[in-house]
Amino acid sequence: MKKAIGIDIGGTKIAAAVISETGDLLNRLVIESDPSDREKMFNRVVMALEQVLKDSSYTVTDMEGIGVGVPGKVDREQGIAVFQNNLPWAKFPLSARLREQFGLQRIMIDNDVYMAAFAEWRAAGAKKDETFVYVTISTGISCSIIHNGSFFRGAGFAGELGLIPIFSNADKKLERLEKVSAGPAIEKFVRKELQVANLSTKDVFERFQDGVREYQPIIDEVTDNWVQALYSISCLLDPHKVVFGGSVIANNPFLLDIIKEKLKIYMIPEQQHLLNHMSISHLKQNNGVVGAGLRVFERN
């Protein structure tokens, strides 16, 4: 059985895992990031990789390679982490440093959402001639498109769903989706509308499900905003499948029914096939490392 290491790097944590070529998660761990400077951050990645090997009783020579998901802009051909909002790695030669550190030649790096999307595409059993979209709603909002078995990247910035302007009923003006409907924006909105401090996104959805009526307008506003952007995807791509991930929606699967109900209002009959092919991620927090590991086995 061939194996690879998958790494999912974020500003607060690093997940590392040993992945089989069939996508099985053989071992996984999470450690804290250290974004205080570039070398300390790289050392944390090395630590995560070494520890996951040690815990699994494998050695680096048992691995086919390393796949790494990095936030922000990535130069995949050169293996460079070009720019990130939450890491100190401007133009950081990540692939070269990992080759030097571990001696493995096959190092695959890509944007973290693309890595997660690849795992979800495989798990969804999407056909090669289909258009598949993975949407993540968490501290940010983004998506990745796989068309005819390959990523659709445009000129390099395709999938930035969070930048789409939507009409915010709360603000009565156009706003970028991520600014008003990602996790931090939801918390900010609750503080403003309900004058409730120190309330997490998790608390918001729990109180709504507990039937606290004051939270209904919050959920309506947020889901209305998502649906405006999702209808843009429907119109532009007419995808065969959409899978949702990210902590906001993966941890609150009841939101999918609300999204479908509202999206149907926008859709003409010829678009409504999509409503039967929208689902929540089954991989959840593992999709980043699984996708990163699986990309090692892709030879195209």
From TrEMBL:
Pfam families listed in its UniProt record: ROK
Keywords: Kinase, Transferase
UniProt cross-references to InterPro entries, sorted A to Z: ATPase_NBD, ROK
Domain of life of the native organism: Bacteria
The keyword Metal-binding is assigned to this record: no
A GO MF label: kinase activity
Gene3D superfamilies per the UniProt record, alphabetical: 3.30.420.40
Family: Belongs to the ROK (NagC/XylR) family.
Classification via PANTHER family: BIFUNCTIONAL UDP-N-ACETYLGLUCOSAMINE 2-EPIMERASE_N-ACETYLMANNOSAMINE KINASE, ROK (REPRESSOR, ORF, KINASE) FAMILY
Stated name of the protein: 6-phosphate glucose kinase
Species this protein is from: Neobacillus massiliamazoniensis
